[in-house]
Amino acid sequence: MMNVTYVRSDLSLTGAHMECIAQLPKRNKGTSIAMMLETTLAQDDPGDETSRRFRYQYTYAATACCGAIDADQDADEIYCEHHEDILIKHTDGRWTGIQVKTRASNQPVWKASDEQVKSSFARFCFLDNLFPESFRSFLFATNHPLHDAKNAASLKNIIKEAHDATIFSDLSGPIQKWISARAIEAGVSEAQALRTLKKCHARDNLPKLEDSLIRLVGDLSLMWSGAKNCTYEQLQKAATRLIDECCKASSLEHDQALSAYVRSLAPTNEVSMAIAGKRMTQEKILQALTSGLVSTAMLSGDTALTPMPGHGSSELLSRKLDAGGFSFNSINAAADLRDKADYLALGWTKKFGNERGLERYDHVRSVALSEAAKAYDETCTDKSTFGKEMAMQLRNNINSRRQAKEELFDCSDSHVEGIAYELTAECKIAWSTDRPWEDE
Question: How far is CA 88 from the centre of its chain?
Answer without folding.
Answer: 20
